[in-house]
Design brief:
By secondary structure, this protein is of the alpha+beta class. The protein contains ten helices and twelve strands. The protein has two domains: 113 residues, Ribosomal Protein S5, domain 2; 109 residues, GHMP kinase, C-terminal domain (Alpha-Beta Plaits), CATH 3.30.70.890.
Length: 267
């Protein structure tokens, strides 16, 4: 869900949203360097390294920590760009958390989340790694434990600009604040969905097709569309039925991120 409560004087929007993780995502590998160089060894086509949130996160942490150490980074990109499912933000958060360990900085989670907020409003939730009800611009987090169903995530072949959607004059910006409990009971919506559907017929088509099998929802500002299922078998069945017209993937919902599951197994 994503409720837009209003626009602030600084141009950002007050919102309420619910974050939950998937057991599916990009993979990052890090190798320590002692010469201070930060290298992304697997650049993304069309995205200069200097603009990549991974590189920005590493350099900002290096600068603030005043460490002489560097890193080589390899990215296996799985999540679609412009899909609204936090691929770039989770990569940035993973970089901050991983380099805090690799460089032995000893920063606590609060400091890392504070730094993450300067990179993007939804970076802090990935730093903290627990499902959360978010307020403010997305940085005020209340941990929650919703059900963890199986999801079918459809990926329309279109990239949606978050700035474009939040700038649309038809976007409603007057939703009243809601408490956590009604959200967990399903009493919510995505205020961005009507705007995205109007601008992107590919997304509207995906919502309509998935909506024949389960309640179809938009992820953030899109473009990905998802629906919940009680079992992997049921999610797989619908995925196969839609495979001729739409690409997508099946993943398990998780209230603890894969990054933090990995950390728990290592430490």
């Amino acid at each position: 869900m994503l409720h837009i409560l209003g626009r602030r004087e600084d141009g950002y929007h007050e919102l309420q949203t619910l974050f939950q993780f998937l057991d599916y995502g990009d993979e990052l590998e890090f190798a320590l360097r002692d010469d201070g160089e930060i290298n992304l060894c697997t650049p993304i086509d069309g995205v200069p390294n200097e603009s990549n949130l991974i590189v920005k996160a590493a350099r900002r942490l290096q600068q603030l920590a005043r460490t002489p150490l560097g890193v080589d980074i390899w990215l296996k990109k799985v999540l679609p760009m412009g899909g609204g499912i936090g691929g770039g933000s989770s990569d940035a958060a993973t970089t901050l958390v991983a380099l805090n360990h690799l460089w032995q900085l000893g920063w606590d989670e609060d400091l890392l989340a504070e730094l993450g907020l300067t990179l993007g409003a939804d970076v802090p939730v990935f730093v903290r790694g627990h499902a959360a009800f978010a307020e403010g611009v997305g940085e005020k987090l209340t941990p929650v434990d919703p059900e963890e169903p199986w999801y079918l995530v459809l990926v329309p072949q279109v990239s949606v600009s978050t700035v474009e959607i939040f700038s649309d004059p038809l976007l409603t910006r007057d939703s009243p604040p809601i408490k956590v409990r009604p959200v967990l009971e399903g009493n919510s919506r995505n205020d961005c969905q009507p705007v995205v559907e109007r601008r992107y017929p590919e997304v509207r088509n995906a919502l309509n097709l998935l909506g024949k099998f389960t309640e179809a929802k938009l992820t953030g500002t899109g473009s990905c569309v998802f629906g919940a299922f009680p079992s992997k078998a049921e999610a797989d069945r619908v995925s196969h039925l839609l495979a001729e017209t739409l690409t997508g993937f099946v993943a398990k919902g998780s209230n603890v991120s894969m990054l933090h599951r990995k950390l728990q197994s290592l430490f």
